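Entry for the shared binder. Reason: the reviewer on the internal report wants the predicted structure included alongside the sequence.
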Amino acid sequence: MIVVGVGCGPGMLTEEAIDRITNATRIYGSKRAVDIVQRFIPSDAEVGLLTDYSNLSSLPVDSVLLSTGDPMLAGLGHLGSEVVPGISSMQLAFSRLRLPMTLGVVVDAHGKGHAEAILEAMEALDRGKVPFLLTDPSFDVEAMAGMMLERDSDDTIALCERLGYPDETITFGQASCPPKGSSELMVIVLIRGRTQ
């Protein structure tokens, strides 16, 4: 199976990803991933929309499995015999914020213990790194801000929503006055000090 990164939003496909999709006979992915690549899917390709990811290893070996963002950034890349990278939400967030990715630390808070992820992010911030939090719809920004204040940290929270989409927004706040999110497609970047 080939796992193809479709980027974190429309228009972020690499040429290699487009080539793999246009030559595929079987394509599987979430509705969001399929929507991103729809114009490149051959009319005779079998397309399967995925909502259950528990049996992906049973897909036919010649399948193209679509992964939003980059498959190796907490994605589906571990399933592929081959992986085609995509433009990740981290790449786009750090570009928008003009931060060097060499300082970035990925903290996966997607479907995992949020408190542990927040502590991991704050420890990275204390080491001079720039934590990038992959979140899920239940992630509580105010709870994170409260934990930051408990550690006397009133650093900047950059809330990046719908990166790569026309309605993309980046909202800044501090732990003492955190930004409010409204999208399920959200990532967070913590930046030492006050930037706004």
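Summary line for the report: Helices lie at 15-22, 31-37, 89-97, 114-126, 141-150.
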